[in-house]
Design goal:
The protein has 254 residues and is an alpha/beta fold. It is 30% helix and 29% strand. It has 7 helices and 11 strands. It has a 7-stranded mixed beta sheet with strand order 5-4-3-6-9-11-10, with helices on both faces. A two-stranded antiparallel sheet has the order 1-2. Strand 10 and strand 11 form a beta hairpin.
Length: 254
């Protein structure tokens, strides 16, 4: 089967779901296939006035508003009024846009981590393209597995794979890992471990969405001794469906 046929079939599946089914994991997987296999998928793209490299098998920011929204949430643009400082760890860095922009905004050290090895290569390419290789380290890591257990960060940010898939689901590609989380196992581990990786006054942030199961997320937070604080929300339309993007801080429950 050709890539064009796969992409066409995926697009038909995406369009087959009504608005109230935006949380269906099969729909998100279809979006993943369409993004990965579409014939016009570029090797470079434009975002925030900059050119970025895009490798195969890596989440493409041009087909989803989430990366741009994350930059707005963090306030990381070329015109930041208050330069950033300190250290940052990004979980699920993808193309590395957020990590690179963090370095450009002033972060002295950025670790860009992803479970997808293609994404790690992609983040390195974009760090080199924008002249921040001295401050951005890209690592292949399953959440915190490859992060020095002694290192602490002033900011940890995860724009998550917020769509819930069944616990027994097996990924068909590395690309799908950016879209769905089987049984919310990744979210549970992030909630349980992230606060232990922060500096004394550090912040743990999670970019979530109404495509995900917020009730289950709050349940997992309680079970892991965490509390979720909503900092900002923004509603956009994705494929003619209203979707809320949410930035949350994760703090120990008191």
């Amino acid at each position: 089967m050709s890539q064009a046929t796969v992409a066409s079939d995926a697009a038909a599946l995406v369009n087959a779901y009504p608005t109230h089914e935006v949380r269906d994991y099969q729909r998100s997987l279809a979006r993943s296939v369409e993004s990965r296999t579409r014939a016009d998928r570029p090797h470079q793209f434009q975002l925030r006035g900059r050119t970025w490299d895009l490798l195969d098998e890596v989440f493409a920011p041009i087909y989803s508003p989430s990366t741009s929204i994350a930059l707005d949430f963090l306030g990381w643009t070329d015109t930041v009024e208050t330069p950033r400082s300190g250290s940052m760890l990004e979980i699920g860095c993808g193309t590395g846009v957020i990590s690179v922009m963090g370095a450009l905004a002033g972060c002295r050290r950025v670790v860009a981590a992803d479970i997808n090895p293609h994404a790690v290569d992609n983040a390195r390419l974009n760090a080199h393209r924008h002249g921040v290789t001295a401050r951005v380290e890209a690592v292949h890591s399953d959440l915190f597995s490859a992060i020095d257990p002694q290192e602490r960060f002033d900011l940890i940010f995860f724009s998550s794979n917020y769509v819930l898939a069944p616990a027994g689901h097996h990924y068909a590609s590395e690309h799908d890992k950016a879209y769905v989380d089987p049984g919310y196992s990744v979210h549970r581990r992030y909630l349980a471990e992230v606060c232990e990786r922060l500096t004394l006054n550090g912040s743990a942030l999670l970019h979530f969405s109404s495509r995900g199961d917020l009730d289950l997320l709050r349940q997992l937070a309680a079970e892991t001794g965490r509390k979720l604080l909503t900092l900002v929300t923004r509603q956009v339309r994705e494929n003619d469906h209203p979707v809320d993007h949410i930035l949350m801080a994760i703090v120990p429950a008191r």
